[in-house]
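Cytochrome P450 2C19-like: structure, please.
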Amino acid sequence: MDLVLVLVLCLSVWLLFSLWTQSHGKGKLPPGPTPLPIIGNSLQIDFKNISKSLSNFSKTYGPVFTLYFGMRPTVVLHGYEAVKEALIDQGEEFSGRGSFPLTEKANNKLGIIFSNGKTWKEIRRFSLITLRNFGMGKRSIEDRVQEEACSLVEELRKTKASACNPTFILGCAPSNVICSIIFQNHFAYKDPDFLMLMKKLNENFGIVSSPWIQICNTFPVLLDYCPGSHKKFLNNNSYLKSYIFEKIKEHQESLDFNNPRDFIDYFLIKMEQEKHNKQSEFTIENLIVTIRDLFVAGTETTSTTLRYGLLLLMKYPEVTAKVQEEIDRVIGKHRNPCLQDRGSMPYTDAVVHEIQRYIDLLPTNLPHAVTQDIKFRNYLIPKVRFDSSTLNLSALKVLRENRHFHRANVYSLCASSETQCSKRISPLCLLFSGKRVCVGEGLARMELFLFLTNILQKFTLKPLIDPKDIDITPVNNGLISVPPSYQLCFIPV
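Here you go.
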C-alpha cells in the first residue's frame, strides 16, 4: 500500500512539473494549441503527414506558433515570409540544428548535417573548401556528371524497353558522382558492395520518413526500450559506417601527403596537421560521420527527386513532349546535353524547378534551432540547451502557397509557353535553409538537369497504366516526401 502511495505521489509531482514547465514556456513562446501533460499536442498531430497538420494549425494560430512534441516545445514557422525572415534575414541566429533523436543516436552529433557549434562550423568550412578543390561549381565536376549520365543511359538501355522499377538505377547515378569525390571510386551498377550500400540507403530513407520514426523522435525513450524499424535504421547505419571505416583504413595505408586523391585523403592530412590539438574536430569518428552525411545527401535526395520527376513526367505527357521538343531543337539527337544548354532551354529549366517545388522533398525542413535568445515577431525564442534539447525550430517551407504560385497544388506547367516558363523560376523554388544550405546544392541542380535531359533525349517514358490513373501522392510525408513505387518502360528513340 505504501509503495502504491509513493508511486501515485511521484506521478502527481511529475504531472504538475510537466504542466508548470509547459505553461512557464508558453509565456515566452508564440501561441499554439494547449498541450497535455507529457504527451503535449501529439494527439492533434497526424504523424503520417506532419506538414498537413502544421498547415492546419497555421490557419488558427498564424504563421508563427508553438507545438509540443511530447514535452518538447517546437516553434513552427509557416510560409515564405516567416521562413525567409528567420533563415535568410537572421540566418546566423537561426543556424543551429534542432534535436532529431534517432540521428543523434546514430551519429553522436558529429558530421555536417546534425552537428552544432564549433563542430558544424569547422567541418562545414573544411568540406566546402575540399569539395571546391575537387571541382564543385567548376567544369571538372560537370565532366564527372556527364560521364555518369552516359553510364545511366547505357544501364537504362539494358532494360530493353521492358517494364522496370527505376529506383535502384536512378540511385546509382548520383551515388557514383559523390563516391568519385569522397572515395575516388566508381562502382559498376552490379557491384555487390554497391548493391548492398544502395539497399541499406533506400531502406533507411523509407524508415526515417515513416510515422513510427516521427513518434520515436517525439518520445525518444522508445528508441531504447521498444522494438521497431528504428533498430533496422541503426543497424543499417552501422553497416554504412563500417564500410566507410574500411575505406579509411585503405586510404591510411596508401596516403601520399603531397598528392591527395579524394575527400578522405584531404581529411586525413588535416588530422595529421592537428594531431597535437586535443580539441580538434578532425577525428576518425568525425570523418566517418561526415563521409556518411555526404554519401547519403549526395545520393538519396537527388535520386528521390529524379524518381518523383519521372513519375510526374509520365502523369503529364504534354509537359514531357514540350521538354523533348526543346531538347531536339537546342541539342539535337547526336550530342550529349551540357550545362551550358540550360540557358537556351527555359522550358526544361522551369520543369526541373517545378519538379523540386511540387514534390517539396523536405516538407518540414530539417529541425533548426536558435543559437541565442532572440526576439522574433514580438516573441522570445530562447537558445536551445544542447544538453537537453528544450527547443526545436521547424521551418516549414510552403512551396504551394497560392499567392506565390498559380495553381500551386498541381503540377502547373502543362499549359505554359517557354516565355511564361522563363518567368516562373521563383526564389520560392529554391530549397534554401539559410546558413544550413546543403554544401552540395549546386551539384544537385546540375545532376537533375543533366540526368533528366539525357534520359528524355534518349528515351520515351511509357507508363504501364493510363497517365490519368497515375497516383503521384507520396507514400510517406514525414521528414521526406517519398513517391509511390512504380514501373515504366524506357523506349529508345
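Notes: The longest strand covers residues 72-78.
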